[in-house]
Design brief:
heterodimer, A: 4-stranded antiparallel beta sheet, B: mainly beta, 4-stranded antiparallel beta sheet, about 0% helix
């Protein structure tokens, strides 16, 4: 089974700053990855699928990139509503999620 | 608009069976895609429990194999989760979601989640 390692665990930033979140897979099973955003008390929301495609209604400030074992979610300029936990996910046999990165207000 | 809504008891006794249902609206579960259950223990990350596809085929997380059953009622457009012999470790928010496979597999619609506590 694969392990998805997200870093950093916590990112402390201010509105308007750029956020760069990393997801590393323990082995290369797919060139594609999904990203989700989760706010307290809410279900996760799909942000990015197939590594770089924004889901319906997701603002352009969210972008995804990567291949092989290294993937990145970038938020170009943080808005107040972007402070949340972000998860990456792949499927190898069955779906796996990373441990999450919390983007918190500095 | 696809919507999913979980329902079921919020409290289950140890050793008993956890039963949840996910009602789907805006899309027929018989048409396509995968219909999944995912859980999140308090303060922890996400764990996939299992899925049923539009043809009725199921897949389960090996760590839960033998305790989990997912079934579908196409006439009511809903699917269900049964988890037997529960312990405190099964306390979590349980969410249903639609799994979609394009170049990679991902979950594009989620229910709000329902909190289940295992306690006597």
């Amino acid at each position: 089974e694969i392990v998805l390692t997200q870093s950093p665990a916590t990112l402390s930033l201010s509105p308007g700053e750029r956020a760069t979140l990393s997801c590393r897979a323990s082995q290369s099973v797919s060139s594609f990855l999904a990203w989700y955003q989760q706010k307290p008390g809410q279900a996760p929301r799909l942000l990015i699928y197939d590594t770089s495609n924004r889901a319906t209604g997701i603002p352009a400030r969210f972008s995804g990139s990567g291949s092989g074992t290294d993937f990145t979610l970038t938020i170009s300029s943080l808005e107040p509503e972007d402070f949340a936990v972000y998860y990456c996910q792949q499927r190898s046999g069955w779906p796996f999620f990373g441990g999450g990165t919390r983007v918190e207000l500095k | 608009q696809v919507q999913l809504q979980e329902s079921g008891p919020g409290l289950v006794k140890p050793s008993e069976t956890l039963s949840l249902t996910c009602a789907v609206s805006g899309y027929s579960i018989s048409s396509d895609h995968y219909w999944a259950w995912i859980r999140q223990p308090p303060g922890k990350g996400l764990e996939w429990i299992g899925e049923i596809n539009h043809s009725g085929n199921t897949n389960y997380n090996p760590s839960l194999q033998g305790r989990v059953t997912i079934s579908a009622d196409k006439s009511k457009n809903r699917f269900s989760l049964k988890l037997t012999s529960v312990t405190a470790a099964d306390t979590a928010v349980y969410s249903c979601a639609r799994g979609r496979l394009t170049a990679e597999y991902y979950f594009d619609y989620w229910g709000q989640g329902t909190r289940v506590t295992v306690s006597s």
